[in-house]
Amino acid sequence: MDWQAINHRINRMSEQLQAMQSPDGAWRMCIDCGTMSDCYFLTTLRLLDVRDEPLIRALADRIVSRREPEGSWKLFPDEHEGSLDTTTEALLALLISGHYRDGDPIIDQAKQFIRSRGGLNNVQSLLTQSLLCVTGQAEWPQSFRIPLNAMFAKDGPLPTLFQMSGHARVHLVPIIMMANKRFALRTAHTPDLSSLFLDGSRRFQNDASIISVLNGLFGSLIGLLSPDDESLYRQAESFLLERLEPDGTLLTYSTATVLMLLALVSIGRSPSDPIMNEGIRGTRTLLCSDPPMVQIATPTVWDTGMLAYALGKAGLPSTHDTMQRAARYLRLRQHTRYGDWAIRAPNTPPGGWGFSNVSTRYPDCDSAAAALRAFVTDPSATLPHKPASIPADDWDRGLHWLLAMHNDDGGWPAFERNGKPLPVGLFNYSGTADIVNDLSHADLTSRVLHFLGEDLGMTTKQQWLDRSARWVLSQQEKNGSWFGRWGITYTHGTGTVMLGLTAVGVKPDHPAIARALRWLLSVQNADGGWGESCYSDQQRHYIPLGASTPSQTAWALDGLIAALPSPTKELERGVDALLHSLDVQPAQLNRYPTGAGLAGMVYVHYESNNWIWPLLTLARLRRKFHS
């Protein structure tokens, strides 16, 4: 093992990260979800007649820059063919921008690709269909026309709002409002894409009457639903406005915000209303990099928590100015307001953290654990202990909130405890299960376990933690891997679980850990690293990328470090590959989207992934094998 090279890389990354910190203590890195958010914001700017030609032109240029040579757009780089839905969004946005017209080669090639994939009738994504409908290209699907009184009911045959995930709620409510109004907003810039509906119907093939779906699921339904009246639209409007963040965004999501703005127009609000202006201004704050792209949300709290934690593990003392500034930033972002999570945790005071810089209502377990970890950076402290960098009451509130989100099955959700799986047949769209459900996942649960074990000294001797470990063990695949919901995919899940289980006392030679180790070694690349395709997330089995990425190599190495009693040649090859990837690997591999959003819809490149995970892995390696 080349410890000189490892120490050099740790020190160099630490110095670089210190230089990258913002004056307020945060790290502000970008997340790239492809062109989806760019297309939605550009289209909304035109529909609401927001006159900002430099921004509209810049967004159009950014969209064109992601185009494939044959004329399509992809969800992820190794997608065999382009994505119909992504290409449709890009085509519509470029035409509505006014900077591209029919007859331009870029437009003609995009249309040719769409026809080759069966036309717009075959668009599968709920959000892409909504974009086509709100611009008047298509009829609103019958399955979107869910009566609002059913959605706001406390119970009934339909999934009610608060049975769904929070992010599903804020996206579906504006879509259902517009669908029930048959709302379309046309301007002088709006194109006519009717020729791309090859059967001439302007309808989508995956549409089905909601009543027929319900009858199939629940039997004959008589007198189930009543028509919407205006009071229900006002209730829906209040639901949305009550969930606005201080910057005017809806739960910090750019996509939810623009859908909300269009839904408000559908019920009579003027495009010049102050609420609309605040929403546009808030969405502008999600612009990142040069040329600008629209992030789906800012990852600032998550990045700051995890980078401070990584720097602490790399040896930066908690008294260092960098760590103190990060702690101050995170203290100011701790939640003090109740959100929808309190419905299923009514006796829990606020205390979590959200993913984004302005999040005040939608905390998540991953970000809360990341923030708490950032305060526990003194390796010499006796565990368990309360860190000095946060007031004891605030620490207790944060830890209590995280523990209160523990699901009855033993796992942790992303946002709200004890969600129930919903019949996804009601929503026959790409990524439905991921957007509607918020269930326990092995990767997120294992990150919480790793925090509780490594940083707070908890073990499976505590019955409730033993139950969590048993639940995670029950999720192991037959081949020894674990599925990762929030990273791509089995590499992420397996390495994360191995770290989490061993941190709370599961022995490294446990049969499940041994099987996981064998699986990781079986998918190691010839160059020593690891790389997995986003296809794994779509198809729910491991599919190799054919090349190594820094974050996936780091996740796999975490599993090896957790399981091995001493370095092996496979571990050494993996470390060499990681160091090499950080130095000379082609940029496209370092930008591969190893973050998971919604299967078949959203894949995410976190700029921070190539900093957080390699630095943590190298620090763990040094601490275990070279201390």
CATH topology of the largest domain: Glycosyltransferase
Query: Count of DSSP E strands?
Result: 5
Overall morphology? globular
CATH architecture assignment of the largest domain: Alpha/alpha barrel
Strand content: under 5%
* Name of the level-1 CATH class of the largest domain: Mainly Alpha
The gyration radius over C-alpha positions equals 24 Å
Mean pLDDT: 93
Q: Tell me the number of structural domains.
A: 3
Q: What's the total helix number? A: 26
Q: Going across the biggest sheet, name each strand in turn.
A: 1-5-4
Structural class: mainly alpha
Percent helix among the residues? 40-55%
Low-confidence stretches: 215-224
Question: How would you characterize the largest beta sheet?
Answer: 3 strands, antiparallel
Instruction: Report the end-to-end length measured between terminal Cα atoms.
Output: 13 Å
Overview features:
49% helix, Glycosyltransferase, 26 helices, mainly alpha, 627 residues, 3 domains, Squalene_cyclase, repeat, intramolecular transferase activity, three-stranded antiparallel β-sheet, SQ_cyclase_C
